[in-house]
Amino acid sequence: MDEMERAYRLAAAAVRRRFAEQHPDYLDRLSRLSRSDIAVYSGAYDQVGRVLECLGLPAVTDPEPKNLPARIAFVNCSGHYQKDIAGAAAAFVAGGGMLVSSDWGLDQVLEKAFPGVLAWNRRSTGTDVISVEPYLDSVWSEVVVLGADPQWWLWGSHPIEVKDPERVRIEAASHDLLVQHNAPVVAARFSWEQGEVFHVISHFWARSSATPTLRHRGPGVDFLRTGMRLSEDGIAAVLGETKLAGDDVSFAVLQSAATATELVAQCCVRAVPNTQEQRTDPGNTRCPPNTPNLC
Asked: Which segments of 114-174 does DSSP mark as H helices, in order?
């Protein structure tokens, strides 16, 4: 088992423990998801199914797109998709489903299913690791360590252009992407009729990370404390569950795995209504003042 795979196992246990300690309602909603609630469309490049497996969330793989009964559907980055998937995705979201896509799903699925919202800017990245700045109220804002930006792996990825800033909520951006491709968006979501779409550049299952600072080169247990903010008992429970030591994974690699795992888990949480209160959307995130290039 390589370091990245160890990191995803540790990240999944940490995310579930974080929910138990800080958001028990999130853990309750995850527990109410059955296999038939989650669909995964396999891709040649991304492997979100492995993240779900680490989280202990079973899913149906490559179901018939028409009349999809799931609550949430993940569309992996791929070079080829079922020919009717764009139309099925539009109907699924319109009926109240949540669609989560990665990288090449942007132009091959989202542009066709939801025209005029998000688009590929027709550039491609190389193989690179970039730093990411999540918005303060994003789905992963609670696992950000000040001074240690998450590292996001790119691999021939398709940069995101926001066509409808009034509709789109930006979740995270990258100065590196802005400088290199004039397209800073890392993750974004938008509502469409009764449902929701969440898209991220590159892949949920990363293959590498970077260690630009001394802190990034430190032990992963430091991220469990400062990023996940787990209690000492929680850290001990996570390490015991995974049978890993605190330094078996570096801070940077665990942070990369944990931010991706947190996104997947939070999307699943959003797909299940809260039984205690009505789910609300905090509203659209528009371009910050004096930063028009971010959109």
From this structure: none
Give the distance between the most distant pair of CA atoms in the chain: 50
**Six token digits for residue 188:** 């974004």
Question: Which tokens go with 96?
Answer: 């109240």
Of 72, 70, 80, 102, whose CA–CA distance to 205 is shortest? 102
Helix (H, G, I), strand (E, B) or coil at 96: coil
Q: Of 200, 144, 190, which is closest to residue 169 (Cα–Cα)? A: 190
Q: Which residues contact 270 (CB under 8 A, 6 or more apart)?
A: 98, 139, 196, 279
Where b means 16+ CB within 10 Å and e means fewer, 258-272 reads bbbbbbbbbbbbbbb
User: Rounded CA gap, 44 and 53, in Å?
Assistant: 18
Q: Considering the domain 3-283 in this protein, what is its CATH number? A: 3.40.50.880
**Which residues of the chain carry a pLDDT beneath 70?**
275-295
- pLDDT for the residue numbered 214: 86
Q: CA 207, CA 14: separation in Å to the nearest integer?
A: 20
Q: How far apart are CA 57 and CA 269, in angstroms?
A: 12
* 151: nearest Cα among 207, 101, 103: 207
Instruction: Give the amino acid at 233.
Output: D
